Amino acid sequence: MASARWESIDSAKERDLVKLEEEETLLCEFE
């Protein structure tokens, strides 16, 4: 169960990173 919990945390971190990258891309395009 602990491993599954860590996997969900890792996936959440990856989603946050992707979200940040997308926002940075939008900002670059906006400028």
Descriptive notes:
This protein is mainly α and 31 residues long. The chain has 1 helix and no strands. It starts with a helix and ends with a helix. The mean pLDDT is 84.
**Secondary structural class:** mainly alpha
Q: Looking at the structure, what is the overall shape? A: rod-shaped
Instruction: Give the mean pLDDT.
Output: 84
Main sheet makeup: none
Terminal Cα separation, in Å? Answer: 45 Å
Q: Which stretches are low in confidence, meaning pLDDT under 50 for 5 or more residues running?
A: none
% residues in beta strands: under 5%
Number of strands: 0
**Portion of residues in helices?**
over 70%
The tally of helices reads 1
Provide a quick synopsis of the model.
This protein is mostly helical.
Sequence-ordered SSE layout with sheet pairings:
Layout: H1 2-30
How would you describe this structure in keywords?
rod-shaped, 31 residues, mainly alpha, 94% helix, single chain
